Amino acid sequence: MEHYPLPRDFQVTPNELKVVARGLTRPECVLALDDGTLLAAHGAGGYSVISSEGTVSHRLAESEAESGRSYVPNGIALAGDGRVLFADLGKAYGGLFSIDTRGRIGSVLDAVDGVPLPPSNFLTVDEFGVLWFTVSTRKVPRSEAWNHEISDGFIGVIDAAGARIVADGLGYTNEVAISPDRKWLYVNETYAQRVSRFPLLGTPVAPDLGAREIVASLGGADLPDGLAFDAHGGLWVTCIASNRVLLVRPDGEVQTILADTDQDHAELVARRVREGTLQHADMQTAGRSRLGNVSSIAFGGPSMCTAYLGCLLDDCIRSFESPIAGLELPHRKRRIA
């Protein structure tokens, strides 16, 4: 195994974080482009653009009033053709959509296997044009799955053959990422409190998944949400509730990179997840944490060593510098059309 270069004692303190941009609305997911532009989900129905100079602009759906539907973009993606895509985490409805620079909404996928998509969590388009997406749970409201017992989330793909589910029975499916060697698809199972992976089978343009393996089991209030690989195979994981950034090293050791935890709130969340009594109101606060339920991590900057953090409950993106570079993702060289 290649020597992993990050020291085991590397940590970042909350005071070392830099605020990159403010004035955002639920910037749950962040994408970093190689010209310095950042894209972030906008919880009121679109996405935000942060220029390399720090200027913030918002592109919101113009058709909500006409359709009578409010969109809640959760995961966002930049497709190879320049379309901005989002997974809609609505209260009762989900689906995958595109939104152009004028705010016009287009449907990408509203059903799979003949069943309408429930509230949808995440999506990404890989270098072969395959769109990967996740649905956390089929339960409505979603809070019914905020426990260790419900495992009805799934991973799907859209490729040349159409849309299909490639993995099912997950414990609140969240973000997915392909490993640097392209042998594995990793996934966060938020309320099962684990990081899992699947062998990546099939062909690049018609992928399939093998049997699940558990990579890391977490405890306390560590609820894994976002994830990103570095260039050496380490997996960086953001945890809501505990407001921690963890690193799953290639040898399987879990290292704490950043923590800003309100212990009282964390203990309450941990107990209610175990008991199956966690409520929506419990997750609408981060307690005294300053990180606002850190939900996303994206590597960018000229050397890919800047780690950008999205969140659920604050209006900003924060960043810190990593001693090692992140893995360059396909969307890094793409541009909004």
UniProtKB/TrEMBL annotation:
Q: Does the keyword Lyase apply?
A: yes
Q: Which InterPro entries match?
A: 6-blade_b-propeller_TolB-like, SGL, SMP-30/CGR1_Lactonase
In this chain the SMP-30/Gluconolactonase/LRE-like region domain maps to 75-256
One of the record's GO molecular function terms: lyase activity
**Pfam families hit by this protein:** SGL (PF08450)
Among PANTHER family, the record links this protein to: BLR2277 PROTEIN, LIPOPROTEIN-RELATED
Q: What is this protein called?
A: Virginiamycin B lyase
Primary gene name: vgb
